[in-house]
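Extended Data, panel c. Modelled sequence:
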Amino acid sequence: QVQLVESGGGLVQAGGSLRLSCAASGRTFSRFTMGWFRQAPGKEREFVAAVSWSVSSTYYADFVKGRFTISRGNAKNTAILQMNSLNAEDTGVYYCAAGDWTSDWYHASGLGIYYWGKGTLVTVSS
């Protein structure tokens, strides 16, 4: 009933930027928090960033260090992740997620996440 579709991934050189977009659709979509997780090859899934429905609250993983910015589209059914100063460790599949915010999001346990996108691949060369 709710679908999340990511776009914007691709190949970029270290130091470059990418802009990821997640579009949510479905008549059952509520005022969910939307965010991004990623999974690098051989590593576990980790939290990247999230933004509340009202855009009044944003949450970031420590490794972002001001490089990434999450925002919400005007229709509130889109989550944008602007990634700057990318490095090789940012390589991975980035997944859009929607649900109810809890601190569990920081641990990428899946708790509080109701919907997942299929992911978009980000490859940073160096």
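The chain has a mean pLDDT of 93. This feature is highlighted in the accompanying rendering.
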